[in-house]
Amino acid sequence: MEHHIRFDADAMTLYLLDQRALPGREDYLPIRTLDETIRALQVMVVRGAPAIGVTAGFGCVLALEELRRGLPAGADWRTAYDRALERLEAARPTAVNLRWGVERMRALWRAHAGLEMEALLPVLLAEAETMRREDVEICREIGRHGASCINDGDTVLTHCNAGALATAGYGTALGVIRGALEAGKKVRVIADETRPFLQGARLTAWELRQDGIDVRVACDNACALLMQKGLVQCVVVGADRIAANGDAANKIGTFGVALLARHFGIPFYVAAPLSTIDPRTPDGAHIPIEERPDREVTHVGGTRIVPEGVPVFNFAFDVTPADCITGIITEKGVLRAPYGPAIAAALGA
After folding, report:
1. H or E segment at 30?
2. CA distances, 151 to each of 88, 205, 235, 292 (Å)
């Protein structure tokens, strides 16, 4: 699955598979402006750290094209473009790949500072396409390295969706599962439903079912019982930001899964590209945690399930401490504790 993020250069339009509609419908949303890109990220038309980074690359292209078409006469396009990139970069606070994607495109623009908008556009578009292709290749490498962490016959529990839909294709956590299957191992998957947005029930189950991979959905609060009964042999999750010390932010509820895995002696792996590691963030306490709209908790579809006037907590992420993580699976191999030196070495510091 590599067509859920695609760009039509003739129409200068980004097409995103609207993940809000899955599994019932496969709708593609056309994105043509900076505002539309930011909204698609914020309402989770597209989500998952690597997919957010790739979308940001194409968003930088759309922002420049929008200026080329409609900049007022006499305005400084470079100043306007810099502000546009700052707005895009701030669209979601936790997933560091958003900043990574914008910074990569900004650096390319700076390296071609002498170009005018018309000449810069194809340069940026080529880079965005390169980012998309690279992400698929990186995920396949993550899968290849991660396959060694799964034993033949294992049932793997995963939380949220860290599959093809959360990347440009193949996936991180689900890439590890795909890699194990391609290595000839028999693997089953339990997908936590992942309240409140139900990424596991709606998205992980959908894409694994599409690929014919054995998957079963469980309520989030069944995790302890599943582990107690010996129904889980391994946990693999993705990440939205990994701090320099190995603390990892992922979808809310991941920390609880990690604590249960440690209690029951079950290996707990985080699968993510090196671009998700943020060496500027020293530890998990410094990772900003996004809070999302109340409605995601108070409603299921159009039906209210929380009484009117009752406030809710809707933190989108939590942070799993490094000492709960068995290994961090990257495109350069499986990093092991102590994570500070292992991460520095992997990043080439």
Report:
1. strand 28-31
2. 41, 21, 12, 37
DSSP 131-157: HHHHHHHHHHHHHHHHGGGS-TT-EEE
The residues of the chain that CATH labels 3.40.50.10470 are: 144-347
The pTM of the full predicted model, rounded to 2 decimals, is: 0.95
Cα 102 off chain centre by: 15
339 SS3 class: helix
Is the pLDDT confidence value at 193 over 70? yes
CA distance 214 to 230: 18
Nearest residue to 254 via CA among 210, 192, 196: 192
pLDDT digits (tens, 9 = 90+) for 163-187: 999 999 999 999 999 999 999 999 9
Active-site choice (18, 154, 240, 247)? 240
For Cα atoms 42, 194, 41, give the angle at the middle one, nearest 5 degrees: 10
CATH topology of domain 5-138: Four Helix Bundle (Hemerythrin (Met), subunit A) (1.20.120)
- Residue span(s) of the chain under CATH 1.20.120.420 come to 5-138
Q: Please check the confidence at residue 2 and state whether its pLDDT lies above 90.
A: no
- AA letter at 62: L
Beta bridge partners of 43: none
Task: Give the span between the Cα atoms of 97 and 249, in whole angstroms.
Answer: 12
Cα–Cα distances (Å) from 98 to 147, 275, 312, in that order, read: 27, 10, 27
Return the CATH number of the domain spanning residue range 144-347. 3.40.50.10470
Binding site, annotated residues for substrate: 47-49, 92, 199, 250-251
pLDDT tens string 120-129: 999 999 999 9
Q: Are 42 and 70 in contact (CB under 8 A)?
A: no
Residues flagged as binding site: 47-49, 92, 199, 250-251
Rounded-to-integer distance, Cα 20 and Cα 39, Å: 13
Clarify whether 220 is annotated catalytic.
Answer: no
How confident is the model at residue 349, as a pLDDT? 59
